[in-house]
Amino acid sequence: MENLIVRLDGGDRAQLADLADASGRTPEDVVREAVRRYLRDERARVGDEAARLAQRHDALLKRLGQ
Question: What pTM was estimated for this model as a whole?
């Protein structure tokens, strides 16, 4: 596992600590889960947008591929 430093302001850091404490996890576990969820959601959003654009420009993409 690689390290990444994320700088948080005091309020965000306190909320992170409170959430971690309330859920019985470490702040690092909470952040890892949040990053994984974000990456999953963004991957799906970008994939959906790519599919929409491909469908919208299907005729042009076919012409360019010839």
Answer: 0.75
DSSP state of 38: H
pLDDT tens digits for 2-40?
999 999 999 999 999 999 999 999 999 999 999 999 999
Angle at 46 between CA 40 and CA 2, to 5 degrees: 40
Main-chain phi, psi angles of 24, to 5 degrees? 70, 30
Residue 18, CA distances (Å) to 27, 39, 45 in order: 9, 24, 30
- Give yes or no for a contact between 6 and 31, defined as CB atoms under 8 angstroms apart: yes
Q: What are the counts of helices (DSSP H) followed by strands (DSSP E) for the chain?
A: 3, 0
Strand, coil or helix: 7: coil
Q: Could you count the other beta carbons within 10 Å of the beta carbon of residue 42?
A: 10
